[in-house]
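Fill-in record for KCD14 protein.
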Amino acid sequence: MSISSEHKPLGKQVTGSLHTLSPIVELNVGGEMYTTTLSTLKKHPGSKLAEMFTGQPKLRTDSEGRFFIDRPGTYFKYILEYLRSNQVPTQCIQDVYKEALFYDIEPLIKQLEDSPQIFGELMARKQFLARVPSYSENIELMIRIARAEAVASRRSSVIVCVVKTEEDAARCQDALNSLEMDKKSVVKFGPWKAAPSISDLLDCIQMDIEAKGYKISFQPHVAEKGFRFKSHDFFYKFLFTWW
């Protein structure tokens, strides 16, 4: 082994062939230490993990000579257990799934996608949200509006218009025209063609914004007197709390 002068702080660069290494391998995965065999790591030849340990070394080592992988070490134990015994993890499913995707371990990916947690997210919720026009863009728009209104405030609110059908979309537009407020600040979701209801979509909005680290709640928006429609038919107020 030799030290690369260009990357000394990162540890040693392995220069020999992996075929000359001991079959016992020590790993440092994000600060977590593991010991396993080359054959275990290369169990699935088409995976990225196997590629790391095939042919010319593609990994650096830490100061103790352990191969270093810059990934969350906590979940690597589940990856390793699967490689050793084909045991599919039952804990931390979402996080292990991300690692399985990174290491490109196809059999584990497929088995995790059959689990209720991943199946529900991929095949149910995400398939539904894919049918809601501009869903991701609207989430980002809500966050931008809330942040713009957060100056010297504890809370900021965003008005959301949610409609499921084309008919409701037309009625919502009429209602929106009668609102005495900046219509550009109202974020509109829908319509969509799928079974989930408006309340389901509202839950998704809250879930996805909270996943970005924000503290948020929502309630029906009560409009001013003289409003032409029941405001809670379409309009909701999302409240961001900053401190």
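KEY FINDING: The chain is about 35% helix and 20% strand.
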